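Exercise 3.2. Students should predict the tertiary structure of the chain below and write it as structure tokens, then compare their answer with the key that follows.

Predict this chain's 3D structure.
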Amino acid sequence: METRARYVQMGAFTLVVIAAGFAFVYWLNSAGGLAQRDTYKIVFDAPVSGLLRGSAVLFNGMRVGEVTQLTLDAKNPKRVVATIGLERGTPVRADTVAGMDFQGLTGSPVIALVGGASNDPLIGKDRQSPTLVADPASSQSMSQAARDALRRFDGLLADNMQPMKSMIMNLEKFAVALGRNSDRLDGIVAGIERMTGGAAAKAKVAIYDLAVPQAPALAGKAQGIQLIVPDPSALSALDNERIQIVGAAGGLSALPDVQWADALSKLVQVKIIRSFEDTAAFAGVSRPLEGFQSDFQLLLDIRKFQAVQGDSGRVSEVEIAAKIADGKGRIGATKVFRARQAITATDAAGAVSALDAAFASAAQEIVAWTVDSVVELSTPPPTPLSPGSPKKGRG
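Answer key:
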């Protein structure tokens, strides 16, 4: 019984080995190097650096075979002939484009085939080892392409050497000038912050407004007349929110940590319009508005609106020039109004209070003068005597 069992085991092992051998041969025949392939030749007219036997062959991006042989053309040493084996059924046609491509991070070279038109005949059935001619540009190696790119870049640098040199020298000059004036940068930045209001976040700024001047009541004196007060003109040093002060040497600066509630020209315009409205002298007073018809315009020019530090102490000065123009733009009256007020307190609030008082004095005169001038300009001149009228003579 033991002898028979040993024979059974040996027979089973032999059958397994034979079956494995058949399976291996079947694998080689169906998926390995022994599978039936179609053979093609591809002619390259340029170097094929990196291409080796066993390199992959791709058809529209799919692997369909590999390189089986690389040879040089004896008649033309510049040519390289690559023999490739492709899977049966690969649709290689007369217009199939052949070339080289590079795959992966290492840039491994492969032969790339791109399919042609579907109505062209296949070229693998009518002759042995059909030949395709590769695109000359596609066989250029990566190193050659890199060398050509570097050569073009070097030519670009050579053509623009002088402009680049000038640019570098200008940058060096700018850096030297910037370093020489680095101690002034902090002051420039601080000045920009003060001018744009950016410093308000760092320091608490006190905001002041002007009071409406109390002009005498002149109700109905210019009855039926419409008056417009356009934006007053002023230099940029005055037409902002800063409260100006003139030093003993004549330099103009701004009081720190204080400002007007709006640009000075806007404040003057609004306060004078409200003063006119309080007098009730005109039928209507307004800023220039679309569709608003006016009989006269009051044109204002702010020349001075500042605190002055003089030898005898500090005073506030307000100087405003006024012009009255009719509906045709002709100037009918002109006058300059000046007012001064002593500054008794030493703080910013004292300077603002004196400026407010000086403005009130000048504005009251402007309102009264404007009403009288408009009434005079709107009054028609006396009718001249006709030629037949009797003339008064000496008795």
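Discussion points: The longest strand covers residues 296-310. The two ends are 185 Å apart (CA to CA).
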